[in-house]
């Protein structure tokens, strides 16, 4: 593993927090898969994404494709974050603060879009 600059260490922290925030929101989305308990989903590695994928299949039909697209985007960004972190352990893996911050930005934008969609759906009047 290469020696990390303070800037890179801070960027790794930001990336880790962004990924965790997104996974926490995914756990809330997927909570019905665990009897309504998001904590039960959140504490199991990878379960937040799996549960959210299951839950969005039951989203309102007019918003289902949007939910599915955002959850699948979350999957891509979470994979990118893990790939970038693991790249630090390879001799040729030159990952810097800018890379981590770029991925963190993607994670946070995805989280914000999912939260906005959830808020919209939850405000919609029921028939």
Concise structural overview:
By secondary structure, the protein is mainly α. It is 72% helix and 0% strand.
Outline the structure in words.
This protein has helices at residues 6-29, 38-42, 47-55, 61-87, 97-123. The chain is elongated, with a radius of gyration of 16 Å. It is mainly α. The model has no long low-confidence stretch (mean pLDDT 91). It has one domain. It contains five helices and no strands. Helix 1 (6-29) packs parallel to helix 3 and helix 4 (61-87) packs antiparallel against helix 5 (97-123).
User: How many domains is the backbone divided into?
Assistant: 1
- Low-confidence regions: none
Share of residues in strands? under 5%
Q: Structural class, please?
A: mainly alpha
Distance between the termini: 57 Å
Using the alpha-carbon principal axes, give the shape: elongated
Classify the helix fraction into a percent range: over 70%
Number of strands: 0
Sheet bearing the most strands, described? none
Rg computed from alpha carbons, rounded to a whole number of angstroms: 16 Å
